[in-house]
Amino acid sequence: MRRLGSELRKLRENAGYTIEQIAEHLECSPSRVSRIETGKAQPPKQRELRALLELFDATDDHARDALLQLAREAAQPGWYNEFQEVFPPHFGSYIGLESEAAELRHFDNQLVHGLLQTPDYACEVLRTTLPGEAPKTIDRLLQLRLARQKVLDRTAPPFSLWVILDENVLQRRIGDVHVMRKQVRHLLEAIDTPNITVQVLPFSKGAHIGLDGPFSLLGFPDPTDPDVVYVESQAGNAYLEQPHQVSRMNTKFNLLVASALDPRETASFLRSIEKEMQ
């Protein structure tokens, strides 16, 4: 949807039409046209898309067929839709982005990222953050979290994960010592995986630029798909896509990389923590 919307926006702008004119042509609201162009709405129907291509005088048969195919693919439900009865509103958008990404870079000062959580750790997080939720719902959310981790094994296109964890993540006990020890051991195993990079930002580094909270940067296989910054909070999830926003968060992540222990030092640090938990 993001790729389709981006192409339609380019065609509209090149043809000299405003969003309001397109809304009038489709007999819908300008906000729907805007959501289509930003990939945040259901894709236009095939007849709507053909009408737009005619309006934009898009005569290249190959380009027209490619856009029609994109619309058909965008209308297909994602694998995660079988869990949609349990995940929060709009979280499906993030899972869809994560599933299609070529790389994910993440900083966290609260929890281990979901893609690197062990089942026991993930279960403790879900139980704690969703008090009073039915065990069946917790179990379904756990299944979803573990299903997301399959992206780490994807080879076509390849997927890479780079995670920076504040030491606070490792010092806060989630579950009992056994749960935390298994989680630390899992992080050590992840460091040895070619497509995963893990860094720890220890307390000894003092104040750092990530103190204001977690964020993720998602990059995609198609170079025409712009990066997305994802920020989750109690007030709602934010998707930042403007070039200046993405550039600022890229700089922020790079500064965190420079401040954190390198992967070799991180492995030594994690082994020392694991030893303390014996």
Give a description of the structure.
It is built from 12 helices and 6 strands. The protein is α/β, with parallel strands linked by helices and 278 residues long. It has 2 domains: 73 residues, 434 Repressor (Amino-terminal Domain) (Orthogonal Bundle), CATH 1.10.260; 158 residues, Endonuclease Chain A (Endonuclease, Chain A, 2-Layer Sandwich). A 6-stranded mixed beta sheet has the order 3-2-1-4-5-6, sandwiched between helices. A hairpin with an 8-residue loop joins strand 4 and strand 5. The longest helix is centred in the last third of the chain and has 17 residues. The chain is elongated. It starts with a helix and ends with a helix. The model has no long low-confidence stretch (mean pLDDT 92). It holds the Pfam family HTH_31.
Tell me the layout of helices and strands.
Elements (H helix, E strand, L loop, with lengths): L1 H14 L3 H8 L3 H8 L8 H10 L5 H14 L16 H10 L2 E6 L10 H11 L5 H14 L11 E7 H5 L5 H15 L4 E6 L13 E5 L8 E4 L6 E3 L2 H17 L3 H14 L2
Parallel strand pairs: 1-2, 2-3
Antiparallel strand pairs: 1-4, 4-5, 5-6
Helix pairs in contact: 2-3, 4-5, 7-8, 10-12
Keywords:
DUF5753, 6 strands, 278 residues, 2 domains, Cro/C1-type_HTH, single chain, Lambda_DNA-bd_dom_sf, alpha/beta, 50% helix
CATH architecture of the largest domain: 2-Layer Sandwich
CATH class of the largest domain: Alpha Beta
CATH domain fold name of the largest domain: Endonuclease, Chain A
Low-confidence runs: none
Q: Supply the helix-strand structural class.
A: alpha/beta
Distance between the termini: 49 Å
